[in-house]
Amino acid sequence: MRDPKHESFLAAYQPCHEPLMRYCSALAYGKMDAEDLVQDVLLSAYQRWDKIEKKGQFLHYLIRSARNRAISKWRRKKFRAELLEHHDNKMLAKEVSPEVLLDIQILYRALDRLPDKQREAVILFEVTGFSMKEIAEIQECRVGAVKTRVSRARKALKSLLEERAERLPSMITSLKSIAL
Q: For the whole model, what pTM was predicted?
């Protein structure tokens, strides 16, 4: 017997899968397991499926939910070193070179030093591939504010990365390619 709730949820989730995985992978790095975050978000969304009003903006709902869950978990977790090792081992299993792994670690440290809204905007834009308009909807602000956040985040990252600043685009591309 087919469950209409289950089928409608899966149909809505299908186009959201890849962007949500990219976002959660980038968001969770060194702080929590990305797969656990995705599972928590999906379980919660499924349980609340009938109450979600804007099903056409389901991806935005999932992104906000992932951000909120991650913040809650970060406040409770103290296992950062173990998680970093876990993520590094997963990347090495994907045959990521040690040089690329080091670049990604450095990039994450720099991202962690950005203000929350800037970090989220640059991850959504550069890693997940959202448009400025979509990010504005997710962050509940104007497109101009998102452009400013992304621009300031890029500038801050270049400053924080100092001698690696010229490699920032390739570092982001590396991150994007393994963030699934």
A: 0.61
